[in-house]
């Protein structure tokens, strides 16, 4: 069961890719890099992070972790870490991962990337339409929204947008809640823009503050368009109550839709 009271929108994480490379302003205080730096300090100092605790581009791949996870009998929502579409991840590894995930399964998979171009290019090779695989794209500001969303929309089928950490006010009105016909990807399909929008403030040491009006604006844009909205946290203490309620709308956990803070 998803622990929505703590803002957790998956039931289990799979570190399919260890390591990464900063590629966004949202990477400045990356929680994954912080964990890698903390727990690998000493015997493996510098294996994945530099002296400042930022990912240094080193990666290690673990297809065995995915193979083991899918054998679980209890249905799970798996979140894949870190970025499966990192530039150093071979196509062959991505193909292996998809070959496992596209099989009929009681599980669901969330695949989040900051590199939507490579995701879009490879997604068309698999076209996973079984409904249990959800691609997602992370943005943190308006520049990233304008640059990445048009590319991400070339990914067919269900998908979600993660605005985390939210670093400024973001206008999604051009994209939320309407059908989209990608003009430059060579396909005539029309598909829904987003099945959900996730939002969260930055946490941890040095976290940059978020304005509640930025979050309210995103929520209102989603509600007006009928797009599910999930609020992960609004500050370092991981508080989640906004205007007297939580927002836990997740298409992969529909029974939690509309649940309010008690």
Rg is 18 Å
Oligomeric composition of the shown chains: single chain
Would you report the number of β strands? 11
Counted by DSSP, the helix tally is 6
Order of helices and strands: EEHEHEHEHEHEEEEHE
The neighbouring-strand order within the major sheet is 1-4-5-6-7-10-11
User: What's the CATH first level?
Assistant: Alpha Beta
Shape: globular
CATH topology: TIM Barrel
- What are the low-pLDDT stretches, counting only 5+ consecutive residues below 50? 183-191, 255-262
Can you offer a commentary on this structure?
With 262 residues, this protein is of the alpha/beta class. Helices cover 24% and strands 17% of the residues. The relative contact order is 0.13.
Write the layout of secondary structure elements.
Blueprint: E1 12-15, E2 17-18, H1 31-39, E3 60-61, H2 63-69, E4 77-81, H3 91-101, E5 108-113, H4 116-126, E6 133-139, H5 142-152, E7 160-163, E8 179-180, E9 191-192, E10 196-200, H6 212-225, E11 229-233
Parallel strand pairs: 1-4, 4-5, 5-6, 6-7, 7-10, 10-11
Antiparallel strand pairs: 2-3, 8-9
Helix pairs in contact: 4-5
List keywords for this structure.
262 residues, alpha/beta, 7-stranded parallel β-sheet, 11 strands
Describe the structure concisely for a colleague:
The chain is an alpha/beta fold and 262 residues long. Helices cover 24% and strands 17% of the residues.
